[in-house]
Amino acid sequence: MIKRVHFNVSALPYILVAPQVAITIIFFIWPATQALYQSFLVEDAFGLSTEFVWFDNYKELMNDPYYLGAFKTTVIFSILVAGLSMGVSLILAAMADRVIKGATTYRTLLIWPYAVAPAIAGALWVFIFDPTLGIITYIFNFLGYSWNHKLNGDQAMLLVVIAAAWKQISYNFLFFLAGMQAIPKSLIEAAAIDGAGPTKRFWTIIFPLISPTTFFLLVINIVYAFFETFGIIHAVTQGGPANSTQILVYKVFNDGFVGLDLGGSAAQSVILMVIVIILTAVQFRYVEKKVAY
Amino acid sequence: MFKSTFMAISAFSCLATINVANAATEVQWWHAMGGANGDRVNKIAEDFNATQSDYKVVPVYKGNYTETMTAAVAAFRAKKQPHIVQVFEVGTATMMAAKGAVYPIEQLMKDVGEEFDSSDYLPAVVSYYTSPNGKLLSMPFNSSTPVLWYNKDAFKKAGVEAVPTTWKEMEEASRKLVANGSKCGFSFGWQSWVQIENFSAWHNMPTGSKDNGFSGLDTELTFNNKTVKRHIKNLGQWQKDGLFDYGGRRGDSLPKFTNGECAMWMNSSAYYGSIKEQAKFDFGQAMLPFYSDVVSKPQNSIIGGATLWTLKGHDQDDYKGVAKFMTYLSSPEVQAWWHQETGYVPITKAAYSLSQEQGFYESNPGTDTAIKQLSLNEPTLNSSGLRYGNFVQIRDIINEELEAVWNDSKSADDAMDTAVERGNKLLRKFEKANK
Question: Which of B47, B133, B259, B374 is most buried by its number of CB atoms within 10 A?
Answer without folding.
Answer: B374
